[in-house]
Specification:
This protein is of the alpha+beta class. The chain has 10 helices and 12 strands. Strands 2-1-5-4-3 form a 5-stranded mixed beta sheet. Strands 7-9-10-12-11 form a 5-stranded mixed beta sheet, with helices on one face. The two termini are 48 Å apart. It holds the Pfam family HATPase_c.
Amino acid sequence: MGLNTLSGRFLILTVIFVMLAEIMIFVPSVARFREDYLLLRLERAQIAALAVLANDMIDPEVEAELLDSAGVYNVVLRRNDSSQLVLSSPMPAMVNERFDLRDAPAGILIRDAIKRLFTREPQVITLLGQPVREGGLLIEVTMGTGPLRMAMMDYGLNILILSAVISVITALMLFIAVRGMIVMPIKRVVATMQAYARAPEDARTVIMPDSRVKELNEAETALQSMQTEITGALRQKERLAQLGGAVAKVSHDLRNILTVTQLMADRMEGSADPAVQKAAPKLINSVSRAVNLCESTLAFGKAEEPAPNLEQIPLGPLVEDVIESERLSAGADSLVSISGTIPEDLEIRADAEQLHRVLSNLVRNARQAVAATGQAGSIFITGSEDATEWCLMVRDTGPGLPPKARENLFTAFQGNARKGGTGLGLTISAELIRGHGGHLELSGSDENGTCFAVHLPRNM
């Protein structure tokens, strides 16, 4: 058990707090002891004085013995409005202070007690008190402070030792109680978390809440819920990984089969049979879509994209290359016009190859969306920069994205907006932009068109 553990710190703090409480009790306790000590001296002095008054002829040796027994030098007793020096002896020094114990306030008693503890030099003091059992009107004695201070020191030392023993016993009892009620349950929770970290798929490592402490039980319940959700997610992830591997294998074999089928379909186009000539284009298109789906699935199932090779590149030539490539793909008779407006001096920090793929995918999706309407349309690519980022916008005048496509826009196999699409293009594009430290977002989509925005940070 070290001081950096919860148990060790709790033990030390308990000892300290108990000692502080005992010290707060110590001061008034010593003041009370002093008062009792002085009252006892007054009582003994009164008894000695009454003994002398009862016998006028008292031997000097007996008088000295009475004074020594009372622990005083002189005794003055006031009776019937007259004061009488009943007992006396030579005093070693002049009187330093005078104390009246008749109805003395507690604060004055505590102050005088503390002062006496810190005054090492012996002094001579005078005490005034009320005689007991109506033995007179007032009793006054003169005494030395040496024995008083020694008695107070002995009493205080005993109190401190007792306080230390009580604090240690109390701390040990609290330590045992806290260790059993808090520390051990916490250690059990930690052990459960460590066991779960080693085998999160093992349901036996999920904690079962059984603590009787409300707060710990709530923590165990929350941990159980979290572990259950994580275990379920890991199992689902494992199933998806296995399913992905199986799909990749099936897609690979199916692609090979479809490739042969595509070749046979190409040969069917040369047939003289009118029915074959009519069915061949549809068959070829269907096979082509199936081949594309297999290739996309295989590409998505491969290892993650490599980290981007970031370098300063001019944006204008890259955008122009994307536009020219899409124009060639669309053909000369296309009703879709593609143009770009990029500042001549605009340079960005990015991976040219990956950014080219992202822009090509966005422009191709926009071109296919506009072409599907059968009407003329436009695609615009713009670029801008500010103090924090570069922004590339791809706008089109197409029909906009359907609500279902917007909900799962960047989810593989779910965010496709056109028939036959896989939804992988936007998923891969978003992944590539995240690799740059930026993000790809849908800025807007309605019946007037769609706009995608690529945000790339400048502080990379």
